[in-house]
Amino acid sequence: MIRLLTSSFTRLTLVGIINLMVAAALTIWMMFSLWLIVPLARLPHVIARVAAILVSVELLALFVWSFGTERCNEATCAPLAQAAGIAARTDIPALSAAFLVFAFVRLWRGQAGARRAPFVGSRARS
Questions:
Q1: What is the C-alpha separation between 94 and 77, in angstroms, rounded?
Q2: What is the rounded distance in angstroms from the CA atom of residue 61 to the CA atom of residue 79?
Q3: Model confidence over 8-35: pLDDT tens digits?
Q4: Angle of CA points 115, 49, 23, to nearest 5°
């Protein structure tokens, strides 16, 4: 029975799918973590909203890909499902990584400005 269900997949195909899903899993984990950290780090709430949108889009793309490609060969799968799979494995993780860099730069600049502000203020008063 198991052989019938996995007959269209080879071992190499399954390993490739697992490796590509690591990017999707990391994207979901990083964006959800960023969504949780934004209020604690006192970052703008827009960053939390964008992180929530990115994690939602990633999950939606994974669902469309998984349901659209169930029990089909790559050539016979629905084009929308294939596009969602490509977006979930490459496009959305790349966009999320760029956004994560932006959020860290924003956090770093905010902390650097907070460290300099008291020094500049105390210097101006004396």
A1: 24
A2: 13
A3: 556 656 676 677 788 889 999 999 999 9
A4: 95
Rounded Cα distance between 71 and 78, Å, is 11
Count how many residues are written for the chain: 126
Please state the pTM of the whole predicted model: 0.72
Owner of token pair 């730069």: 105
Measure CA 80 to chain center: 20
Q: What is the pLDDT of residues 24-82, one digit of tens each?
A: 899 999 999 999 999 998 889 999 999 999 999 999 999 998 888 777 766 677 888 88
Total domain count, the chain: 1
Q: What is the residue type of 2?
A: I
C-alpha distances (whole Å) from 122 to each of 29, 53, 112 are 42, 42, 16
Domain that holds residue 80: 2-125
The maximal CA–CA distance of the chain, rounded, in angstroms, is 83
φ, ψ at 51 (rounded to 5°) = -60, -40
